[in-house]
Amino acid sequence: MRKFWLVLSHEYMRHVGRKRFILVLLSVPLFMLFIFAIGFLTAFLMSDNDPIGYVDPAAVLQGVSFQPEKSGPFADPEILHFPDEATGLEALRQEEIQSLFILAPDFLESGNAQMVSNHDINENATSDFQKFVRRQLAATLPDEVSERVIQGPVMTVRALEGSRTIQDTVSRIVGIVLPFITAMLFMYAVSTTGNYLLQALVEEKENRTMEIVVTSLSPTALMAGKIIGNMLVGLTQLVFWFGLGGILLTVGLVVLPFLTGLTLNFGAALVSLGLWLLAFILISALMATAGVATTESREAQQFSGIFSLLFVSPMWFMALLINRPNSVVATIFSLFPLTAPISLPIRMGVVDVPGWQIVLSYVLMAGAVVLSFYLAGRAFRLGMLRYGKKLTWGQILGLKRKQSQES
Amino acid sequence: MPTIEIANITKSFGKNRAVDGVSFDVHGGEIFGLLGPNGAGKTTTIRIILDIFKPDSGKVSVLDGPMTEEKKDRIGYLPEERGLYQDIKLENCLVYLATLKGMSTSDARREIDTYLERFDLAPHRKMKVKELSKGMQQKAQLIVTLVHRPQIIIIDEPFTALDPVNTQMVKELLEEERAKGTTIVMCTHQMHQVEEMCDRLVLINQGRAVLYGTLTDIRRRFARQDLEVRALDPLPETIPGVLEIRPKNGSHYLKLAPETSPQDVLKTLVRQDIAIEQFEIAVPTLDEIFIQVVQQKGEQPDA
């Protein structure tokens, strides 16, 4: 048992202690930060805080102007009333305002208005002005009613079988995006871990240390130490990333008003977590097979690339998984062990996946794990001391008898 | 009780029978030579001893019984395919491999320090293994083999990549280990090293043990009716019972007729008053025996 721990800690420390690991660890939050910064910058560049003007021949809005309470790049723009169209257009020409809304004389009946702008139509200007109009029209109503009118309708989406309701848009979006991001992070960690394991085994063969190590401890202890040691490397990454994500989400729930009332599907999260852990073991065993079956890193990478490609393949069918989550293809994707870890959580984010499909997905995944361990063990026994000669699938699967080995 | 007992082991890979009924014993405190041409089955035999491979049939006993995980700590192994973790510091690599042999980290560090000094590797302890020369890596590998003070050392081509100075050092080290009572199985092609160091040997060819015994016995078995004579006076052109007289490095090689004994020749020379400096039965070298046995495809001359 001590030797198993020695291998485990050796494998863990040789990755975690390296600069490359720290870089990988920080790369994900930095990448997220970069994406966030790009989004922020884009919003900043697109935002236009110049005043908006309007002309109201029917005096529906009673000539009121709006002066925002806050200032800054993302504050609401000032809304100015112009007595007539000519004055408003002159202000537009002088670029004192970004756009001018001319309400139709029958605005209350038709809701028609004309927008004049020197630039492309600014969506923000339109929505800001619509909000202003709603607020003004509801000004005479009691405060609570006025607030409801301004907020618009609250939609509750309810599944036909009645087991699932989503009350707000944010929860609906988060319900799709969160499993997606989590699955991606998980698969990234699994793939990194798998590659570490692959590398560790190929190196062991390339360096010819395998023969010394297997005369010091049992192949089982060696493989278990390597697999679990490398899995812990991946788990370290996940704990760091999810911990950071959890902190950000907690802060977001407090600081960002639109996240208030956000509901998360913890049942789906648990189902996904279990599936990902099995997937973790599956890919580790497959990578271990690739590591001992091949003779050099490049060859092993090609071998393992097939598995990695299958694991991320549901990404190409994302639209199908979200828009037609109960289609045959989506169902097959969430049952097949190599595509289920991404497909099933995404489907569960948009629909209630039938229980039998979840159970079947788990059963197939567990079967794949057992099979992969059998293959890894077989490949290890056959391939551990084969220098410069790779194993074929036929040999691993026992279809072809192994030819002469060492002598 | 032999330290290692191999009884009639066989091992096949596919249709190829790599080891075919090999038997031998290795005694405690001896240096035992495991010889054979490339592809003879030596490495497979070693791997069977070390429990890396299971034999198809036959029995292996190491340290009085089958191999166990605990016994692995009492064996030092230097494989033919040398290997160390290339991308880590030499000291860390040695400590890791030593702890896998059951040593505590502190003991491993202390012992490794001693060996690093002895092998002139101390200044390189913080270097990555891949930055060391081939000879240095070979010495580091020897440290891994010896550091945990094994009872059995199995060492495959121990002198590869070593210069004469380091070769001598390794020989002295192995002699020291023998003096301490360590059992050493040495696999090599360098016959002069075997002649110099080994107490007993087995020669494997095409998976079969074709020679087995002490060096003296084997050489005696292969000794022909030939003599090597160095005389101060010139030898006569013909000697009764001698088929051929051939000069050889300042002495003479005498090929005797089958019915002639060395004593007959000695008597003749003494009778003729020839001053003799050296008179000995021409024993073949191990190299000659090796080539002869291998070329005869395993048939022993006295078999």
The secondary structure category of chain B is alpha/beta
> Structural class, judged by helices and strands of chain A?
mainly alpha
- Beta-sheet strand percentage of chain A? 5-15%
What is the number of independent domains of chain B?
Answer: 2
Number of separate strands of chain B = 13
Q: What is the count of helical runs of chain A?
A: 16
Structure overview:
The complex is a heterodimer of chains A (407) and B (303). Chain A contains 16 helices and 6 strands. Chain A is mainly alpha-helical and 407 residues long. Chain A folds into 2 domains: 49-152, D-Maltodextrin-Binding Protein, domain 2; 166-396, no CATH class. Chain A has a 4-stranded mixed β-sheet with strand order 2-1-3-4. Chain A has a two-stranded antiparallel sheet with strand order 5-6. In chain A, helix 7 runs antiparallel to helix 14. Chain B has 303 residues and is an alpha/beta fold. In chain B, 33% of the residues lie in helices and 28% in strands. Chain B is built from 10 helices and 13 strands. Chain B has helices at residues 42-49, 69-72, 90-99, 105-118, 134-146, 164-180, 191-197, 215-222, 262-271, 286-295; strands spanning 4-13, 16-26, 31-35, 57-62, 75-78, 152-156, 183-187, 200-205, 208-214, 226-231, 242-248, 251-256, 276-281. Chain B is elongated and about 75 Å long. Chains A and B meet through helix 1 and helix 8 of A and helix 1 and helix 3 of B.
